[in-house]
Amino acid sequence: MKRIFKEVIRGNRWGQRGIAALMGVVFAIVLLAAIMTSFLVESQQKHSGSSLTYTSSNAMFAAEAGLRFASKCLLNPTSCTACSTWPGGDCSDWTNPSPFNPIPFGDSRGSFTISFKTAASGCTVCDADNIQAVSTATFSGSTRELSQIVSKATTQVCQLNTNAITACTGITFTNNADTDPPNAPTENGVCDLPAVPTITFPGNPSGCPNAGYPAMTAPVTVNGTEKTYCSWTQTSNFTVDATGVPGNSVSNPQLIYIKNNFFISGNDVLTLKGHFKFLVGGNFTMSNNSKIILGTATPAQSTLTVIVRGNFLQEGNTKFNPGNPTPPQSDPKLPWTTDAPGNPANLLVMVAGTGNLKNNITFHGVIYGPQMILDLENNADFLGSIVAQSVSMQNNSELQFNNTAAENTASYEETCTGGGIVQPPDMVE
Question: How do the domains of the chain map onto residue ranges?
Answer without folding.
Answer: 55-157, 227-413
